[in-house]
Amino acid sequence: MPEAAGAVAAAAVADRLHGSKEDRKLAIVLVGLPARGKTFTAVKLTRYLRWLGHETKHFNVGKYRRLKHGANQSADFFRPDNQEGIEARNEVAALAMEDMIDWMHGGGQVGIFDATNSTRKRRYMLMKMAEGNCKIIFLETICNDRNIIERNVRLKIQQSPDYADQPDYEAGLQDFLERLTNYEKVYEPVQEGSYIKMIDMVKGEGGQLQVNNISGYLPGRIVFFLVNSHLAPRPILLTRHGESLHNVRGRVGGDTVLSEDGELYSKKLANFIEKRLKNEKTATIWTSTLQRTILTATPIVGFPKIQWRALDEINSGVCDGMTYEEIKKIMPEEYESRKKDKLRYRYPRGESYLDVIQRLEPVIIELERQRAPVVVISHQAVLRALYSYFADRPLREVPDMEMPLHTIIEIQMGVTGVEEKRYKLMD
C-alpha cells in the first residue's frame, strides 16, 4: 500500500478502535441565516466525503417541511411569535434527525444536517437526540457581505422550490426578505458544543475559520477542506494526454512519447487553450511527471506549468508495459481478480483505484483552493477519479467511466454548483 494511503487507512482504523460508538458516527449540523451558503457548503462537503469513501448523506430539512406542509408557506409561517409554525418546523427537524440516526444505525457514517438551526433551543433538541447515537459538530456559516447576500437571495427566489409557483419575482423577493427578518429577530450564534464557524469565507479570501473542541482524523479533514474551499466561479479543464505509442500498441502504463495523432492533439489543445483562456492571465497548466503529458502541454505558451507526481497514471506494477491479452495469458488469476473488482484490485507491486483516489486528495484540495482556471493534463485512471469527485459519482463507477482521448471536459465551479461541457477536438 502506498505510504499516503497507508497513513489515511491507519488513522481511520485508529479512530474506529479508540473512539466511542457515538464518536464513530458524525453529524455535521449546519447553522446560519437564510442565503448564507449553507446548502452550497453542505453539498460540497457531502461530495468530498463520499469521494474519500465515507458513507455520507445530505439531509435537507426544507425538503421535509415541504413534504409535510407544502411548498407555499408564506413568511408568516416563520414568524418568531407563530407558535404553531415553530412547533411544525421543530417537528420536521426532529423527523429529519430521526431519519439520519436510523440511516447511521444502518451503516451510514457522516450525516450532513442542513437547516437554519438558528436558536439554542433547536440545537439543544438536536444534541439531546444525538446522545448515544452520534457526535455533533455545528457548522455555522456567517456572511456580512451585502453583495453576496443579495446575490444569494436572488438565486433563492429563482431556484428554491418554495417559490416555484410564484410567478411574480418581486412578490417572492418581498416574502423571502420578510422570512429573513423573522429569522434575524431570534438568531443566536453558536457557542455550545463542538463547532466550526466559517466567517466571510464564501469569496475564498479575507475570511476566517474558527474551531472549538474539534479533534479526530475525520473532523480534522473536514476543517482542512473547509479552510481551502470557496464558491468563487472558475473553470477547471480536464484532458488526457495526446495519444501515446503505448496507446497505439494497447499497452498499459509506461512512459512513451506521443504518436503522430497525439502530437496533432497537443497543437489543437494549445489553440483551444489560447482562445478559451485568453483573458485569464493567472491560469495554470498542471501535468503529471510522465513525458506524454509534458509533451502534450509543450505547445501551450503564456501560462505557468506545474508537474504533479500525484497526477501520474495508476501504477500497474509488474504489469507495466503489458497488453491485457498478455496479462490474461501470463497472469490469469490477476486478470480475473481485476475483472471482478476493478475499484479495489491492486496490481502486484502497484496500485488500485482506491490508492489513486487517496493520493489525489491534495490535488482536489488545491483545485478547491484555486481562484483562477486550471488545465489538468493527466491520464485515464487519474482523470476518472478526479471527474468522479466533481460529478459526485459513486466510487464503484469510477473504473468504468468514459474518459476518451483528445477530449476536453470543462468543469465550471461556482455558487450554482458544478456544470460540465465537453469538447471533442479530434475523432
Automatic annotation (TrEMBL):
Which keywords does this chain's UniProt record carry? ATP-binding, Nucleotide-binding
Q: Which InterPro entries match?
A: 6Pfruct_kin, 6Phosfructo_kin, His_Pase_superF_clade-1, His_PPase_superfam, P-loop_NTPase, PG/BPGM_mutase_AS
- Provide the transmembrane region boundaries: none
GO function terms (MF aspect)? 6-phosphofructo-2-kinase activity; ATP binding; fructose-2,6-bisphosphate 2-phosphatase activity
Gene3D superfamilies named among the record's database cross-references? P-loop containing nucleotide triphosphate hydrolases, Phosphoglycerate mutase-like
Under the heading Pfam families, the entry gives: 6PF2K, His_Phos_1
The record places domain 6-phosphofructo-2-kinase at: 20-233
Could you mention a single GO BP entry for this protein? fructose 2,6-bisphosphate metabolic process
State the source organism's domain of life. Eukaryota
Task: Give the CC-aspect GO terms.
Answer: cytosol
Binding sites annotated in the UniProt record for substrate: 240-247, 292
Q: What is this protein called?
A: 6-phosphofructo-2-kinase domain-containing protein
- Source species: Aegilops tauschii subsp. strangulata
